[in-house]
Amino acid sequence: MKKRSVFWSSLILGLSLIVCGPAGAQDFSSFYITPKIMTSYQKADIPGQGSDRSAVFGLGLSVGTDLSYSTSWPVRLEAEYLYHGNQSFTHSRFRTGNEISAHSLLANAFYDISTDTVFTPYVGGGFGVAWVNNHVTGANVSVEVSRWNFAWNLGGGVAWSLNENLALDLGYRYMDLGKSDTVLVPGGNTPYHISLTAHEFGLGLRITGF
Fold it and tell me: What is the pTM of this model?
């Protein structure tokens, strides 16, 4: 587990350097940060039971650079952290309670579509890692199991420019967080996996130029 954590941490660190590196070659007018809130309609595919769907609330922050400031490319590159909230459900067959939370760290790229108005649609996606934790309870047992996963997303949205330095960013994306481990209770040592995907709607405030 430690080796996998080091591997994924090193990978995302490299991705973050690639994403944020171009800003070093430009002035700070191309650099931005975006605090955001997210509502996810999250789906857990549960072996032997089907699917559980829940709405969860998340918070995050992205930092990025707009390549259009120094090139002819209407492209933005970002590194993003997001907490995806808690999803709780009961596995009826094994009589276990599950409370799953997830954190993701992603490298994203977006293509901005110029409209010559204050509204700029965009499409994009990204990939990185997700840390998924599951608190499993049942039969006088309480166990936490966690794992690192490959994660990816695809989506789009629209930015509404309020002034030269501020824009509201409303977006949608499909997110795949990989799988969560769990245990069978009683027994406590036979794992199975729960696949996590989500339809996510986010609202952020993009702050450009420092």
Answer: 0.81
